[in-house]
Amino acid sequence: MNVGVVVFPGSNCDHDCDYAATLAGANTRFIWHKEGSVGNVDAIILPGGFSYGDYLRCGAIAKNSPVMADVIRFASEGRPVIGICNGFQILLESGLLPGALMCNNTLRFLCRNTSLRVETTRTPFTRKYRQSQVINVPVAHHDGSYYADEHTLQYLDAHDMVVFRYQDNPNGSLGDIAGICNEKGNVLGMMPHPERVVSPELGGTDGAPLFESLLEYVVSL
Amino acid sequence: MSAQEKTVSVELAMEFGLSREEYDKILQIMGRTPTLTELGIFSVMWSEHCSYKSSRIHLKGFPTEAPWVVQGPGENAGVIDIGDDECVAFKIESHNHPSFIEPLQGAATGVGGILRDVFTMGARPIAAMNSLRFGELDNPKNRYLFSGVVKGIGWYGNCFGVPTVGGEVYFDDQYSTNPLVNAFALGYVKKDKIFLGRADGVGNPVMYVGAKTGRDGIHGATMASADFDENSEEKRPTVQVGDPFTEKLLLEACLELMQTDHIIGIQDMGAAGLTSSSFEMADRAGMGIEMWLDNIPCREEGMTPYEMMLSESQERMLMVVRQGSEDAVKAIFAKWDLDAEVVGRVTDDGRMRIIWQGQTMADLEIKPLVEAAPIYDRPYKRGAYLDEVQSFDFNTIHAPADLSDTLLRLLGSPTIASKEWVYQQYDHQVRTNTVILPGSDAALVRIKGGKKGVAMTTDCNSRFCYLNPYEGGKATVAEGARNIACSGAKPLAISDCLNFGNPQKPETMYQFVECVRGIKDACRELNIPVISGNVSLYNETSGKGAVYPTPTVSTVGLIEDIDLRLTQDFKQAGDHIFLLGA
Amino acid sequence: MLARVYVTLKNGVLDPQGKAILGSLQDLGFEDASDVRVGKYIEVQVDATSASAAKERVAQMCQKLLANTVIENYRIEVTEES
Amino acid sequence: MLARVYVTLKNGVLDPQGKAILGSLQDLGFEDASDVRVGKYIEVQVDATSASAAKERVAQMCQKLLANTVIENYRIEVTEES
Ligand SMILES: Nc1ncnc2c1ncn2[C@@H]1O[C@H](COP(=O)(O)OP(=O)(O)O)[C@@H](O)[C@H]1O
């Protein structure tokens, strides 16, 4: 499996995503944001960090990067795209997922472990988890409070689009939402960092099945 | 400041922070009256901050050598060998005065500066720490400073993408008129990829890279060398603003460039900006530089040579590259949307010539400016307070009736209480190397690709240093070594940041001298060399007393196998508990 | 020409920052403050032949970048000064 | 009464945010944009008997909290609407 990790100026979890995907057995390559095409990859990761310094709004400037048009094309073909933290913010800004992420209700950056419930295993990223499994994955963000209007929240529920919910909502997200996918399930955005818990030295391995799911999915195609 | 219209005189020199004697010495060195730009250069180069004029003679005698020391004091950061041709570069530095004026930006730019110190060495920053001191939190001003500083450190480090893995915070009203903000960074570098701040090779181009120059922080270095007084507010417009995003780009561009063989030498433009970076690079190589100010990328209109030379705008570097490499360098920086301009060339006459609009604005011999900087052996005297505090009779204290209550009160005091509120605002896991998270004795960061890990801690019991400066200095080093050892690692080297009050007061100078003596003795005894550091004096507001003597020490150690690491928490019921030591 | 852009949160979107500021103001003794909403104020210098052309252009900038219309509204004022 | 507060960076203070936005606008083809500065826009509802009293009060709030006067300036407009 070839995984492309998109690097925006200011991305800083790009190497961590590369590390986690490689550990799961993928071949990875970095895709510079100025490239017009994502090239020959089977899945795309938009990593965390502070693209463009998070200036204006998190993800707002990155959504206009040259590579994003091709990421949108790739996603519309039903192929897997995951945005983690800043990557989630970019997916929302670019309209690939509904809603918005706002400043944490604590108004502070928050780096700590959270406990998540897996709400659906139908996506290419969650098939190796059990339905309703509770996993520990850290968050590290300032703007992670998920917002969508009532109508959208109902739509998400009705279409099985909520993928992870916080058990201990750390930031004021509506519906305790930590991660959502699109209708098809091939585009996932989540605030917590699964790539940070993929080996025991790092304090946990609950993030590993996400990358392994992706590999299994791609190989099964 | 309309410094341009000012005529150079002893009064102006004093306004710039020089003494009458120092001005006479300048006249003697130059054989003429300096130009305004020249006077500005002298004033920052001879400030306490850049010249270490009050501390230098006492810093001599720090043990600085060991088989594993690759670079000792004197460069942007010190470097030690951790085996297999792998090295770590690290340093701690103060940003006390800027943080007092504007806590968020002051602390943020402190982090930015120390990160640059590390990556100019060719090392990718893999960990940061900080050591903080504030007045008690019942005062809203102190809460404002504390929360602003923490936010600033978090903002800059998180955005840059370095994990902030440790630090310390103390609260004591002794710091309410001058908080302390010390920032530490550690980077990883292969032994054959270390870069130094040297301007070698006659004719080689001098290049300016990074952000544009504005009027930020002019006279910041001299500000860091003076007491605060009621008028300090007026110095506010000189506050520098940080841009961690640009710094992240600068890091990536520099590291990419360092994979090529275009660079000869590189240095961060920190305190005293273009001035100290160019003088120090030329001095280390025994060379001269001709600098063309018309080529300096400026952010504002109408900047004068004086302002360009003294600006402390952030996220800038000065480099010397090989002749013919200019375009290749520019191409790499253009990829990262950064400026890179040729602003001068290396000469062999040992002089700094600064040219602007066809005129020579400054023409100075470098050696005397750097090496004939004043050195003071300031008088010191044991403070009378010491007799009083040391003769304290502990028998006058009676055990409290309710020990549980006392314990709860102790645990509830901000200095002892959990620091989670602080470190949860720092991304301490980015780069997926942090194997001991904040909250234990020392942080531990693994080196990917093997089993090794680097442990680090920053410590200082400043109340102890106040009660007995010599023993306090010793204890500080010992505490750091213990923290490293308790994590399973072997302490290898330290970087120190010596925060004291006004050195012109003999009692303060005594604290300095004695703390330093204590550090030296402990380092020698434990065979832990000092490989980098920083001195911050004048940490007091006039009339309101100085901070406690605070010689912060950052200790770095090595563990060969991270699976053998130890953390401080009790692991399971039934385990035995031992008390070790005297 | 100078365009002033005011970006504000839509009605009904919670504004934690505004709420926190209101809380601090009241703690500071400003009990006469009863509501605070925080938005962005952006000044854009734009080359245009008329104020209406400038406004048009800046509206496009808002749509594409300056505002997130899922949660924000924007308002533009153009002055001839530069 | 509604007070509108505009908080802007002082002249000469680096505005990294404005710089990044300008770069992005130009990449998007808005070459007619030549400068961007970003500030805050704050609406404060305040109880006061007159517009001038309200303005006075909000100025105190700016000094104490809403603006960081080390690097920022502020401007206040009061309207009688509420
Ligand atoms: N207390 C100290 N202990 C050891 N080395 C020191 C100490 N203070 C300063 N140094 C060394 O002196 C050199 C100059 O320090 P400094 O002026 O702070 O560097 P910079 O150019 O980054 O501002 C550095 O190499 C530093 O490591």
The SSE string of chain A, one letter per element, is: EHEEHEHEEEEHEEEH
CATH architecture of chain A: 3-Layer(aba) Sandwich
* The CATH superfamily title of chain C: Phosphoribosylformylglycinamidine synthase subunit PurS
Low-confidence stretches of chain C: none
Reading the helices and strands of chain C in chain order gives EHEHE
Shape of chain C: elongated
User: Quaternary status of these chains?
Assistant: heterotetramer
Q: In the CATH hierarchy, what is the architecture of chain C at level 2? A: 2-Layer Sandwich
**Text of the CATH class of chain C:** Alpha Beta
Number of helices of chain A: 5
Largest interface, Cβ cutoff 8 Å: C-D, 32 and 31 residues
Cα(first) to Cα(last) distance of chain A is 11 Å
User: Using DSSP, what is the number of strands of chain C?
Assistant: 3
CATH top level label of chain A: Alpha Beta
Structure class of chain A: alpha/beta
Spatial ordering of strands, largest sheet of chain C: 2-1-3
Give the overall average pLDDT of chain A. Answer: 97
- Quick one: CATH superfamily of chain A? Class I glutamine amidotransferase (GATase) domain
Supply the key terms.
heterotetramer, A: 221 residues, alpha/beta, Rossmann fold, nine-stranded mixed β-sheet, two-stranded antiparallel ribbon, 11 strands, 26% strand, B: 582 residues, alpha+beta, seven-stranded mixed β-sheet, 20 helices, 23% strand, binds adenosine-5'-diphosphate
Outline the structure in words.
- Chains C, D: Belongs to the PurS family.
- Chains C, D: Part of the FGAM synthase complex composed of 1 PurL, 1 PurQ and 2 PurS subunits.
- The complex is a heterotetramer, with one copy of chain A (221 residues), one copy of chain B (582 residues) and two copies of chain C (82 residues).
- By secondary structure, chain A is an alpha/beta fold.
- Chain A is 23% helix and 26% strand.
- Chain B has helices at residues 10-15, 20-30, 36-45, 48-51, 56-59, 96-101, 103-119, 140-160, 220-223, 244-258, 273-285, 305-310, 326-335, 366-371, 384-390, 403-412, 420-423, 462-467, 469-485, 506-526, and strands spanning 69-71, 78-81, 86-94, 124-134, 164-171, 180-190, 205-210, 263-268, 288-292, 316-321, 339-347, 351-356, 359-365, 434-436, 443-446, 453-459, 490-499, 530-536, 550-559.
- Chain C has a three-stranded antiparallel beta sheet with strand order 2-1-3.
- Chains in contact: A-B, A-C, A-D, B-D, C-D.
- Chain B binds chain D through residues 101-102, 105, 211, 214-216, 236-237, 239-241, 243, 245-246, 299-300, 313-314, 337, and chain D through 10, 12-16, 20, 23, 68, 70-71.
- The complex binds adenosine-5'-diphosphate (ADP).
